[in-house]
Amino acid sequence: MDVQNPLSTSPRQFAAPATVTVRPLLLKPQWMNGLSERLLVSHYENNYGGAVRRLNTIRARLAALDWARTPVFEINGLKREELIAAASVVLHEIYFESLGGHGDKPPTGLFEPPAELAEALERDFGSVTTWRAEFTAMAKALAGGSGWVILAWSERLGRLVNQWAADHAHALPGAVPILALDMYEHAYHLDFGAKAAAYVDQVMENLNWERIGARYRRAIGEAARVDEHFLPFGAPAQEEARISAEELKTALESDDDRRPVLLDLCLPKDLPRRTDMLAGASLHTPAALPRWVEELPRGRPIVVYCICGFQVSGTAVTELRQRGYDARALVGGITAWHAIGGSTVPLDTSMYEGAP
User: Fold this and answer.
1) Consecutive H or E run containing 85
2) Does position 42 have pLDDT exceeding 50, yes or no?
3) Residue in 190, 3, 191, 230 with CA at minimum distance from that of residue 99
4) Whether residue 17 has pLDDT greater than 60
5) What's the mean pLDDT in 81-98?
6) Rounded-to-integer distance, Cα 225 and Cα 259, Å
7) Positive or negative, the Cα torsion across 261, 267, 268, 271?
8) Contacts 24+ apart (CB under 8 A), 275-279
9) CA angle (247, 252, 253) in 5-degree steps
10) H helices within 207-327, ranges in order?
11) Percent of all residues in the chain with a pLDDT value above 70, rounded to a whole number
12) Are 146 and 185 within 8 A, CB to CB?
C-alpha cells in the first residue's frame, strides 16, 4: 500500500511484509486555522487508523482463503471491502498530507499555489479562482451526504480535473489524485455540526500548497524533493533513525535484550494535552535530557516518541545518536500508535521533571 508513498518512513525490518503501515500526521493539529485538534486527531486515529486496521484484517483474511473452495459471494464481498478500505486509506493520506503549515507556522491555504501548479490550474480551469469556486461548490453539494472531492491529474485527458467520488472507491481510471477533500460527516461534525459548507471554507484556509504542488510534479513525471515536503517537521532525516508504529509494536513483543527502551518526551506546555502513554515508557521533559542521558543502556535500542513525532522527539534522537546510542524516533508519535490500535496506559508523571 506504500505504492503511492512519496516517503518511505523507516526500514521494514520489524514489520510483517503484508502490513499496510500508517502514515504520520504532517500537520500540527494545535496550529490549524479553525479546525480543532480534537477533530483532526479523532479523524486521524479513528477513521484513517480504522481504515488501515480494517484493510490489514481483510488482507490477512484473503491471504488465508482457499480460492478453489471459497464461495463466490465471500470472494466478492472481501474484494469489494478490500477496495473500499484501500481507497479510504489512500484518500485519507492525501487529505491529511494536503493540510497544515510548516513547523509552528500556520497554514496559508488562501495564498496562491506554487507557480507551476497555478499555471496548470489557470490552463485547465481558466484561473485559480475559477478552480477554487468549482472545487468548493462540489464539496458543498455533498453536504448531508458522503463522499470526496478530488483534484487529480489525468494523463489520458491531458489536464487536471475536479472529480466527485463516493464510497471511497470511485476514481477516474489512470488519474493521479493530488488533493482530496473528505466530505464524510466524521471529517467535520465535531467542530461544525451540520454546517458542512463552513467546514469546506475552513479546510481551504488550511491547504499546504507546497505539498500539493509536490504531488502534482510527481504526477506529471517531474522530480520533487519529497523528503522536504513529506517528512514530519523536525523528524530525523536519516531513515535508520526512525521506526514506524508497526515496527515498534513487533519489537515490543520480544523478550530479549533487543527489546527497545521507551522514552516519552513532552514539553511542559503540552502536558495538559496528554492522557496516556506506552506501557513501560518513562516520561520526561526534553530540557532534562542532560540529567538522565547517561543512565540509558548502551546495549539496547532506544525509541523516543512525543505527541506527533515532530521536533521534540527528532531533536532528542539526533542528540542521542551523536552520543553513541542506538536511538530512533517513533514516526508519527503516540498519535500514530493510537492509529494502529496500540495499547496504552494512563499517563504517569511521577518521573516528569517539575511535575506537580
Assistant:
1) helix 72-97
2) yes
3) 230
4) no
5) 97
6) 34
7) negative
8) 275/346, 275/347, 276/334, 276/344, 276/345, 276/346, 276/347, 277/334, 277/344, 277/345, 277/346, 277/347, 277/348, 278/305, 278/334, 278/337, 278/342, 278/344, 278/345, 279/343, 279/344, 279/345
9) 105
10) 209-219, 226-230, 245-252, 289-292, 311-322
11) 93
12) yes
DSSP 8: -
- How many angstroms separate the CA atoms of 331 and 26, rounded? 10
Condensed to tens digits (0 to 9), the pLDDT of residues 274-308 reads 999 999 999 999 999 988 898 899 889 999 999 99
Which residue is it, cell 458543498? 140
Intra-chain end-to-end CA distance of the chain, in Å: 45
CA distance 102 to 122: 26
Cell numbers 480534537 correspond to: 38
- Which residue has cell 547517561? 294
Query: Which grid coordinates belong to 162?
Result: 475536479
Condensed to tens digits (0 to 9), the pLDDT of residues 109-134 reads 778 899 999 999 999 999 999 999 99
CA distance 356 to 352: 9
Q: Which of 351, 341, 340 is nearest to 262 (CA)?
A: 351
Measured distance CA(315)–CA(309) in Å, rounded: 10
What are the grid coordinates assigned to 68, written together?
478453489
Residues contacting residue 127 through CB under 8 Å, at least 6 positions apart:
121
197 residue type, one letter? A
Which DSSP state fits 43?
A: I
- Check: CB of residue 251 under 8 Å from CB of residue 301: yes
Of 304, 331, 299, 307, give the one whose Cα is nearest residue 320: 304
- Using only the alpha carbons of the chain, give its radius of gyration: 21
The rounded distance, in Å, linking the Cα atoms of 291 and 195 is: 50
Q: Tell me the C-alpha distance between 34 and 195, whole Å.
A: 13
